[in-house]
């Protein structure tokens, strides 16, 4: 039977970074959870471990049980099977998930998970894929970006996305596909809905925001980074020695820096995520995971007892 664990919001004191204050939310105090994706409601999904009464991972507990923080205030395990795993790869505004799942010893499968009915759909079965598959994202229309791992068998995206096929990294909310023509291809394209037209991008795609802001990396001795918006062209991002890895519709970035992960708006210097945590808080930020359009940041953190996910929320929210 699927278990429900009470969802808890613990707001700490405020930390101030520049003109913005941040509060800390611990979304899953009863377990050790590592969120991988977050939507604009601040709902997260990922994987979790059970904790024993001492607050440590339970003996023999395995990773792989997927969870989602749902609108009714609970974390709902996506599977309780010890021999299988579920890894959320994308979440839309309704809380629906694109997931990778399967047996630890078998090929991964692409899936779609509906939180209301708690149903997991095997997209390999739907598409007739036989050698494993991967899901990488989901848009607000419920379109799941997924592809087969069988060589030479690209996904057909459907006419609502485009009359074309390939290997996607994302479907945007306005139903543009960002994709390559081959699994090892480094040439990226953006599709046009209901058309075979495509726009070729200038560099390798790193990340795509829900609204279609595309973060690209031009691989040189010192990489150049760009943000592209369909119909508006691209522009260079002055990030210095930082390495952007996530972007939202406001062109805020999460970046790796030599000092640690940071948030940057593409115009000013990065603000280290560890500096956003209030001084009175026990949490130490280890790395950034995701950034939504409200400016909330999903991070891995450690309070000396648990290594888990917390959410940093700017004061305007």
Tell me about this structure.
It is a single chain. By secondary structure, the chain is mostly beta strands. It has one domain: Methylamine Dehydrogenase, Chain H (7 Propeller). It contains 1 helix and 29 strands. The strands form 8 sheets. Strands 2-3-29-28-27 form a 5-stranded antiparallel sheet, with no helix packed on it. The chain is globular.
Observed structural traits:
Methylamine Dehydrogenase, Chain H, globular, five-stranded antiparallel beta sheet, disordered N terminus, mainly beta
Helices and strands, with pairings:
Blueprint: E1 5-6, E2 15-17, E3 20-25, E4 32-38, E5 44-49, E6 65-68, E7 74-75, E8 84-91, E9 97-103, E10 109-114, E11 119-122, H1 123-127, E12 133-138, E13 144-148, E14 155-156, E15 165-171, E16 177-180, E17 189-191, E18 198-200, E19 204-208, E20 213-218, E21 224-229, E22 233-236, E23 243-247, E24 253-256, E25 262-264, E26 271-272, E27 284-291, E28 297-302, E29 307-314
Antiparallel strand pairs: 1-7, 2-3, 3-29, 4-5, 5-6, 8-9, 9-10, 10-11, 12-13, 14-15, 15-16, 16-17, 17-18, 19-20, 20-21, 21-22, 23-24, 24-25, 25-26, 27-28, 28-29
